[in-house]
Specification:
With 568 residues, the protein is of the alpha/beta class. The chain folds into three domains: 117 residues, no CATH class; 204 residues, Rossmann fold, CATH 3.40.50.150; 101 residues, Outer Surface Protein A, domain 3, CATH 3.90.930. The chain has 20 helices and 19 strands. Helix 12 packs parallel to helix 13 and helix 19 packs across helix 20. 45% of the residues are buried. Keywords: Methyltransferase, S-adenosyl-L-methionine, Transferase. It comes from Cellulomonas cellasea. One of its GO terms (molecular function) is N-methyltransferase activity. This is Methylase of polypeptide subunit release factors. It holds the Pfam family DUF7059.
């Protein structure tokens, strides 16, 4: 299947020119580390806050090729043609024009060249180990991709947990100084990186990136799935996704791009199922009414722009509900779906009640982690600013849109908005057995993908074992677990024992005397039942009482990865 026809205002692909671009970017050390080294810690930190002045100062008056690339493709300022020619020695400005990356005022060395796109280095740890990748897999680093460009369709790269690519998107507000266009194609933001790092990365046959945007999740999926389908309602986004995939060296026959909304592009007759679905959907809750409300002039339109990359065209949190309840239709048995989302917390409800209903309706195993909770005012401020409107730049529009958001939330009695990670799995057989909805707002140890995969596997392992079968198993303490003991002065026995997980979700479990003793004996040598019996003798109580006390907690420790089965 051929890609949808790309719009004219998006990058174009050409194998020879992309090879040259890739080599130029790698040769200039245009990497995350290289750019931060050029800018220095002060300017780099300011740039992460969307403040350009320190970066502009750090890149002026130098012939370093990285400076020309940063000024053009990140900061969006004009650069002399000669400076960009030096940075793009193989591609040249003419080649960059042919790819749709820049526009030039003339052919003279001092004539201005301006970027048409944002093109910046990207680095992230996605938790994939070093197992051999399928043919046509993008290399782990940009330098490797440049070296292997000529063999991009047959290279057997060995991916590691950290990737190093370049990603093109539309220039942002920092570069243009204007509010975003409604069909803006977003680059890699915090949510994209979060999803990439929580996604399970074991080998998969067929993966779907629903709402692919610039294609970053598809790039990650291509590292461990034999084939990937990326979908988006925006044809501009699909054009950027194809450009980024080609630049990263993903073979064309391993990434298919389709236009359409939600699951429509992959729901036709005879469509093969997916064993991995990832989605950073347009989940932002945006007012659908045009009424300005109290903040605007009477009868004036609400004028809340709808951005394709974030607004799904549904009222409230309906788009997330639709995806949670419907994604099972395209999941193969054993298949996993992971997505980010917002959900409304309405008056008189706990956050997990509403989301729990969606998970029940899905008919899938479900694990939801709420990471953040905002009140309606905080939420409105976040997303009004995201679109480029500020109270300083346009106070009237700011007040009008703020009021529209508050009116919209009030119409549904919304008291807060949650943000989190949803993991769903179609059971291999039988009904779903995993129902877990929890709030984890503290720091976590990314990448979480391996921990999520291990927890899903642990749930299946536990589900197949009743307490009698569990008693025959051998367990060991995970290497990242430590124990803290708190003693009252003058007392020999601790008053509090805490088990702390150093990785993954960084969980802390308070352990009673029996559980602490049980965990302390888990070195893989003794079976669970043997440890329970020894504790019963030591404590002078029945083995059944000890088992009833500790085994539910032991199951929780196995599920969360603090205890791990030995020998299967």
């Amino acid at each position: 299947m051929t890609d949808p026809t790309p719009p004219t205002d998006t990058p174009r692909t050409d194998p020879a020119l992309l090879d040259a671009l890739r080599a130029d970017l790698a040769g200039s050390d245009y990497t995350v580390e290289g750019v931060e080294d050029l800018l220095g810690p002060l300017a780099a930190a300011a740039l992460h806050r969307e403040e350009a002045v320190p970066a502009l100062r750090a890149t002026v008056g130098t012939t370093d090729p990285r400076a020309a690339l940063v000024r053009a493709f990140v900061l969006g300022v004009d650069v002399p043609r000669a400076a960009l020619e030096r940075a793009l020695g193989r591609l040249g400005v003419a080649g960059a024009q042919a790819l749709g990356l820049v526009e030039a005022a003339g052919a003279g060395p001092d004539d201005a060249v301006r970027a048409r796109v944002d093109l910046r280095p990207y680095e992230a740890a996605d938790g994939l180990d070093t197992d051999p990748a399928p043919p046509g897999t993008p290399g782990a680093t940009g330098t490797a991709a440049a070296t292997n460009a000529a063999n991009a369709t047959t290279t057997n790269a060995a991916p590691t947990g950290t990737v190093d690519w370049w990603v093109a998107s539309d220039l942002g507000e920092l570069a243009t100084g204007r509010a975003l266009r409604t069909d803006h194609v977003l680059g890699v933001g915090g949510a994209s990186t979060t999803l990439a790092q929580v996604t399970v990365r074991d080998a998969r046959t067929r993966a779907l990136d629903l709402g692919t945007g610039c294609g970053i999740q598809a790039l990650h999926a291509a590292r461990h799935a034999r084939s990937v389908v990326g979908t988006d309602i925006s044809r501009r986004a699909l054009a950027f996704a194809r450009f980024n995939a080609d630049l990263a060296g993903v073979a064309r026959d391993r990434l298919e791009l389709r236009a359409g909304s939600m699951l429509d592009p992959v729901s036709g007759p005879g469509e093969a199922l997916f064993d991995l679905v990832v989605s950073n959907p347009p989940f932002v809750i945006t007012p659908r009414s045009t009424a300005a409300g109290a903040a605007g002039a009477a009868g004036a339109p609400g004028d809340v722009p709808l951005y394709e990359y974030r607004d799904g065209g549904r009222a409230g949190d309906a788009i997330v509900r639709e995806l949670v309840t419907g994604v099972g239709a395209v999941l193969a048995p054993g298949g996993v779906a992971q997505l980010l989302g917002n959900w409304e917390v309405r008056r008189g409800e706990e956050w997990h009640e509403r989301v729990g209903e969606w998970v029940e309706e899905s008919g899938l195993d479900g694990w939801v982690v709420q990471r953040e909770l905002q009140d309606p005012a905080q939420y409105a401020e976040t997303w009004i600013r995201d679109g480029g409107t500020t109270p300083d730049r346009d106070p009237a529009a700011w007040a009008q849109r703020y009021g529209a958001w508050l009116d919209d939330f009030a119409s549904r009695d919304v008291e807060a908005v949650g943000f989190g990670i949803v993991t769903l799995r179609r059971p291999l057989d039988g009904p779903p057995t995993l129902r877990r909805l929890e709030e984890v707002t503290g720091g976590v140890r990314q990448p979480l993908g391996p921990a999520v995969a291990a927890s899903l596997a642990a749930h299946s392992w536990l589900d197949r074992r009743d307490d009698a079968a569990l008693a025959r198993e051998h367990l060991a303490v995970a290497p990242d677990v430590t124990e803290e003991r708190y003693l009252t002065p003058g007392h020999a026995d601790p008053s509090v024992v805490l088990l702390r997980q150093g990785g993954a979700f960084g969980r802390t479990v308070r352990a009673g005397t029996a559980l602490a003793g049980f965990v302390g004996a888990c070195d893989g040598e003794l079976a669970v039942g043997q440890i329970v019996g020894a504790l019963a003798s030591l404590l002078g109580v029945g083995a059944g009482d000890v088992a009833a006390d500790v085994l539910p907690s032991v199951r929780g420790l196995v599920l969360d990865g603090l205890l791990v089965p030995v020998g299967g």
